[in-house]
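ingest -> validate -> predict -> emit
validate: passed (alphabet ok, no gaps, 342 aa)
predict: started
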Amino acid sequence: MRRSLTVLFYLLVAAPGLLAQTGNAQQYKYVFTVAKDGTGDYKYIQDAIDAMRVFPLASITLYIKNGVYNEKIELPANNTDVTFIGESVEKTIITFNDYSGRGKLNTFTSYTAKISGNRFVAENITFANSAGPVGQALALYVDADKAVFKNCRFLGHQDTIYTGGETARQYFVNCYIEGTTDYIFGPATTVFQNCTIRSKSNSFITAASTTQGKKYGYVFLDCKILADSNVTKLYLGRPWRAYAKTVFARCELPKVIAPEGWNNWGNAENEKTAFYAEYKSIGEGADAGKRVTWSKQLNDKEAKDYTLENIFASANPSMPREADWFTQIRTKPFEWPKENTK
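emit:
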């Protein structure tokens, strides 16, 4: 009886605070500005992230002014609904130089930026790993679901972007991505649309590890593939794990694309499970005549399935924003909030 009274007393005392946490969004800060010159709320991006309310009651926007932010950042899974807006993609740069084998670091801890909070958006930002050609060194590790990167650059060498999250969906639009080996890799369902993708060495662009049972893995729509002058043989992809899926649709391919197009990573068993396909590729590297026999050229009917709506289809279409989250992309320039600068 005494314990019941104690619990009841606690609930009566705590209830106003609990209600305030869930019902009064106005008491929290939802707009932050980071500036290297001290004219914002913070000088460092991670300091701003650490100041954000977890599981916020409204979307959070972080404005990042031009500057080179030499820091390793992480947006944890409980920091949802966050948007990063850079002042300009060429001059708003987040960079670090970790790499696998540096101390106790491995591939998955070598990142410059790790994004785990769902419904994340980034615009006008460069994510770079400046370690150089020293092995695996991620510019971006993203395992957030419903993550959108618009007009961003990703600079690195091996393993530039890791698209993590077996059930995650991610969308890169109007982005620039460069690297050497397997520089786009991972299990997420990911669309790259109107992106420029530049290979800096003879190697492989993608290394998908699509989860078994998923219809879509990597899909490249209307992208342009570039290659440095030293590149003479470039593969579209190889399967990091069985059941890898990668499709290039209406992409421009350079002459240095290997005639066979795809590689089985030294394991013929991968040919039985991987799904590698193209649709109406153009350019000197688009000749399908010598592609490996276990790859596919989509016909018009099959290609109609490769819409954003189909690729990102969810098992829970009635949930808020589930059906159209990828359309929630701003079309007008942001007006930088003067009230959020010092």
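Confidence is low (pLDDT under 50) at residues 7-20.
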